[in-house]
From TrEMBL:
PANTHER family in the record: ENDONUCLEASE 4
Keywords for the protein's UniProt record, in alphabetical order: Disulfide bond, Endonuclease, Glycoprotein, Hydrolase, Metal-binding, Nuclease, Signal
Name of the featured protein: S1/P1 nuclease
Range of residues in the leader sequence: 1-23
SUPFAM superfamilies, alphabetized: Phospholipase C/P1 nuclease
Keyword Nucleus listed: no
InterPro entries reported in the protein's UniProt record: PLipase_C/P1_nuclease_dom_sf, S1/P1nuclease
Pfam families: S1-P1_nuclease
Amino acid sequence: MSRPILSLLLASAMFLAAPSARAWGPLGHSVVAELAQRQLSPAAEREVERLLAPEHTTHLADVANWPDQVRNDPALRALWKRTSRWHYINFSSDRCHYVAPRDCPKGECVVAALAREVQVLGDRSQPDAVRREALKFVVHLVGDVHQPLHAGYRPDRGGNQYQVQFEGKGSNLHKVWDSGLLGTRHLRWRDYANLLDSRSPVTLPRPIAPLDNPYAQWAEESCRLTAAMDFYPSRRRIGSAYVDRNLPLAERRLRVAGRRLAEVLNRHLGDVVTQHAHKH
């Protein structure tokens, strides 16, 4: 076997084995961001627009995928290396009980990353550039933690190593949940957001005790969904019955993520504009 072919095969194997960080894919992240923006308080929306102004946008959907996109930017390789583990958490079993030292060593998981970035975002003593980057991560990571397989199990790396057949092609369960299920709608992100927004207001899941860490609760919710019967298809084939059963679940997670993201931003940005104006 020639060296170029061998190198390509090794690279492909490494890609398949590595945990994906593209929860929901660009479509899902943009939908979550758009749903959240529509639920912002006027004060929070003004602060979002102020922070994003140097990006020449006012829309959260325009920056929602940036934390994934940095992996393809050589200039930001160090940032990707530092943050790549922020996008997911691997639980040790289907009991889905968060124990920080075990499930999030050194704070390198989506639960701890969300807590840190939310704190930075709400810290008015930080430079705008730092808070702007935190805003991008918060928007993205809230989406990540609501994708069930970004809070999956360590043995199969959140479904990345559970091979399936989907639409006549080989895939893995993580990829199906990242983008495959949502892709069956054949909608652009704004149209998808309009579809979900047209439904009755989403009811948030009941809190899970203890109540001291909402981000851990969100991760536990996602993990428990993966433990449901037939979430992992026993015959490893994703057909229309699986899509019909699970697409509503995926869409509900998008809606819950959008509402929770709005609540986080309203809480941490809602009073920033007034206080910021007083400083000048």
